[in-house]
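TASK: fixed-backbone design
INPUT:
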């Protein structure tokens, strides 16, 4: 599957000269995402501007059996877009047009390279927004491909829940458009859901129609301190059980709080675990009543501080600090790389997985930063280390194994939102059992030559 001169020549003819590069700096920019996984250079990077461009590229790659890895913004955390077999990287960032905003249908058509943040800026003028927010500056195509979700998934769902329709270029260059513009359908197999989270191994997503949500008229945010992460996570699971429907419910353990205090100018939180909670709704009174219930639950579980009535500006600073947490952790440990944990469990098991994460890192003398979308049972715990220091890195690998195995034994998953990429391949059999064979068959059906993002997921 080597990329020879004649294939390169054919590919070069498909796009303009400024959309094609074999220069080392461009190759290096597409060799690594934000994970620790070993970088690998592609042979060429191509920036298509249309579905037709992608289709022509795929026809050639299919005929010449060239590996192809689609690229969004390179912000993923498990090596998802690293071109481990070289070949072509299709960088979709020049396909960055918001094609149509159909405000009366609450829908938008975008090209895959539109940045999530740019989309929401435009949509705000229409009183609409696209809720899944991965924090990172991701593209919509990348978010679909990884089924990204983030802090608001607890109320609005993950990216897969908001896809109406897709345009996908298949391995042989054929173009399909699964989905419908209707709000509901019972028609046929749901290929949109199949492509959501498929990480580029089944086809290249070039256009997306997303379902949107009206910006809620009222917001109510609150920050609660607890003396232990156990008390915090128990309270979170009780809030969900009590039928409340927060728009965000995040856990931030003490060492993460210290980093927020250190790297932001705006906060000086007590040095103990925090819970961020936010409600969206149509009336102030309704939200206040919800928050009162939360306050009681927090009090019953020994909350040490309850801060409510956070204004608009403070609220946006709060979420900014939360989004930047991953960067703060990296900044705190220059020269080290993060081993990412992204397990998700049923909500009643949240206290168990949090307690286990704290216990196992403590017993192995490892620093783990527990935080995440706890209200949806999804916990992150980056552990910082040096992948070249085999002895200490193997301890992080062991913890990764133990935590994922425990999460799966609780009925959970190896990855709540970061995807499988390279790092979680090792758990696919344990998590999926006999379903994994069906996944292999689906992969072969879509990509019989094995050229699409090879070396990932399975
Ligand atoms: C976050 C990323 C790491 O939640 O998923 O900040
Ligand atoms: Zn996250």
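OUTPUT:
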């Amino acid at each position: 599957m080597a990329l020879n001169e004649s294939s390169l020549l054919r590919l070069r003819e498909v796009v303009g000269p400024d959309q094609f590069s074999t220069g080392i700096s461009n190759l290096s920019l597409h060799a690594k995402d934000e994970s620790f996984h070993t970088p690998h250079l592609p042979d060429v990077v191509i920036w298509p501007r249309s579905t037709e461009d992608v289709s022509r590229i795929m026809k050639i790659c299919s005929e010449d059996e060239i590996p192809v890895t689609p690229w969004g913004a390179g912000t993923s955390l498990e090596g998802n877009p690293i071109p481990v077999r070289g070949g072509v990287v299709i960088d979709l960032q020049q396909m960055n047009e918001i094609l149509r905003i159909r405000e009366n249908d609450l829908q938008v058509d975008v090209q895959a390279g539109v940045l999530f943040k740019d989309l929401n800026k435009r949509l705000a003028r229409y009183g609409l927004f696209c809720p899944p927010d991965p924090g990172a500056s991701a593209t919509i195509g990348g978010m679909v491909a990884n089924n990204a979700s983030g802090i608001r998934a607890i109320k609005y769902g993950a990216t897969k829940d908001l896809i109406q329709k897709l345009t996908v270029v298949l391995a042989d260059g054929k173009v399909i458009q699964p989905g419908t513009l209707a709000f509901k359908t019972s028609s046929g197999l749901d290929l949109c859901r199949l492509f959501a989270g498929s990480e580029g191994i089944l086809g290249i997503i070039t256009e997306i129609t997303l379902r949107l949500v009206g910006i809620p008229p009222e917001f109510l945010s609150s920050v609660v301190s607890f003396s232990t992460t156990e008390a915090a996570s128990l309270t979170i699971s009780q809030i969900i059980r009590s039928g409340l429907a927060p728009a965000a419910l995040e856990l931030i353990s003490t060492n993460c709080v210290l980093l927020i205090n250190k790297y932001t100018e705006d906060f000086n939180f007590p040095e103990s675990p925090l819970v961020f909670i936010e409600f969206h709704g149509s009336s102030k009174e309704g939200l206040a009543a919800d928050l009162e219930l939360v306050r009681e639950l927090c009090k019953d579980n020994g909350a040490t501080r309850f801060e409510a009535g956070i204004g608009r500006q403070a609220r946006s600073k709060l979420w900014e600090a939360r989004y930047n947490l991953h960067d703060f952790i990296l900044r705190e440990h220059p020269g080290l790389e993060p081993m990412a944990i992204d397990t998700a469990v049923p909500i009643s098991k949240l206290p168990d997985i949090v307690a286990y994460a704290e216990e196992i890192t403590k017993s192995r003398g490892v620093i783990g930063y527990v935080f995440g979308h706890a209200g949806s049972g999804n916990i992150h715990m980056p552990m910082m280390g040096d992948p070249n220091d085999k002895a200490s890195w193997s301890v992080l690998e062991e913890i990764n194994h133990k935590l994922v195995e425990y999460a799966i034994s609780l009925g959970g998953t190896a990855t709540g939102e970061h995807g499988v990429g390279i790092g979680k391949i090792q758990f696919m059999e344990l998590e999926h059992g006999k379903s994994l064979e069906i996944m292999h068959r689906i992969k072969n059906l879509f990509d019989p030559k094995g050229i699409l993002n090879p070396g990932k997921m399975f």
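COMMENT: Residues 150, 372-373, 380, 417 surround zinc ion (ligand 2) (CB under 6 Å).
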